[in-house]
Amino acid sequence: MLLTPGPLTTSESVKAVMMVDHGTWDDEYKKMTQHIRRQLLELASAEASDFSAVLLQGSGTYGVEATLETIPKDSSATLLIAINGAYGQRMSEIADRIGVKHLDLIFDETEPVDLDKVSDFVTVHPEITHFAVVHGETTTGILNPIETLIPAMVDRNIVTIVDAMSTFGGIPINVNQLNVDYLISSSNKCVQGVPGFSFVIANVHQLTQTAGNARSLSLDLYDQWRCFEDHDGKWRFTSPTHVVYAFEQALLELKQEGGVAKRYQRYSENEARLRQRMVAAGFTTILTPTVQSPVITSFKYPSESFRFRDFYLYLKERGFIIYPGKVSKMNSFRIGNIGEIYPTDIDRLVDLIQAYVSEPVQS
Question: Across the chain, what does the average pLDDT equal?
Answer without folding.
Answer: 95
